[in-house]
Design brief:
Layout (H helix, E strand, L loop, with lengths): L1 E5 L3 E7 L6 E8 L3 H12 L12 E5 L2 E6 L7 H8 L4 H20 L2 E2 L8 E3 L9 E3 L6 E2 L28 H17 L14 H9 L11 H10 L2
Antiparallel strand pairs: 1-2, 2-3, 3-5, 4-5, 6-9, 7-8
Helix pairs in contact: 3-4, 3-6, 4-5
């Protein structure tokens, strides 16, 4: 029906499902190499049903084009929210992070590492003036935690600024937690990473997020569940 967004791997369109009669979002990929096809297969395999995860619904292919459909979320992304309003109130930051971590709990329990948690991949339901409802999206570079990496040697997967400095080549769920904490700092300060501690509020939430991106990997939250518990205590 109309384009929604354009990216390096393809475009996202608003489409009508003629079989079911409803409106969905569809990601159209241009399959030019084996690596992008592997990423597409991974995303299709990541069918995790959770209220805070966008789950692919179906797919189709013709010639060198492949598309898969997903629920259409009309509230935009958290990145758009940041662009419109800058830094958000702490209660909103906590709500967004808690819902993101709830989704990651399900993702990690399924043995999958997302590897690209950031504001642009957190989509919003339409809730008006109510509490935001976040869904973690875009599993194009996700990978099973126990699966050998399929990237070229010495190539890191993720978005610069959101990747832990000690991130290795093999997938680790704790890397998603680091990216979530960076996202939290972005939400709290309105500033893109890297973040200067001097601009982070000296509140329980601010101190928790700085700890979660600290140099000491052992001092960071070790699971999404633990991060959620610490987040609840920081309110």
């Amino acid at each position: 029906l109309e384009p929604i967004a354009e990216g390096g791997m393809g475009a996202v369109w608003q489409v009508q499902d003629r079989r079911e009669g409803d409106i969905k979002a569809a990601k159209l990929l241009r399959q030019r190499d084996a690596a992008s096809l592997l990423r597409f297969i991974r995303e299709q395999a990541t069918r995790i049903h959770h209220p805070h995860v966008v789950t692919p619904l179906g797919w189709a292919g013709e010639d060198d084009n492949v598309l898969f459909t997903m629920p259409l979320l009309r509230g935009g992304s958290v990145a758009m929210l940041l662009g419109d309003y800058g830094g958000l109130p702490e209660q909103w930051v906590v709500a967004v992070l808690d819902q993101t971590l709830a989704g990651l709990e399900a993702v990690h329990a399924a043995g999958v590492v997302h590897r690209d948690v950031k504001p642009g991949n957190l989509l919003l339901e339409v809730t008006g003036a109510g509490v935001p409802h976040v869904r973690l999206s875009d599993f194009g570079v996700a990978v099973p935690a126990d699966q050998p990496r399929l990237t070229e040697a010495n190539v890191m997967i993720g978005t610069p600024g959101y990747m832990a400095p000690d991130q290795g080549f093999d997938p680790d769920p704790r890397d998603d937690l680091y990216a979530t904490a960076v996202t939290g700092l972005h939400l709290l300060t309105g500033m893109r990473p890297p973040h200067d501690a001097a601009y982070v509020p000296s509140t329980p939430l601010g101190r928790l997020l700085l700890r979660a991106v600290g140099e000491d990997r052992a001092a960071r939250p070790q699971s999404a569940g633990e991060f959620r518990q610490l987040l609840a205590q920081a309110v």
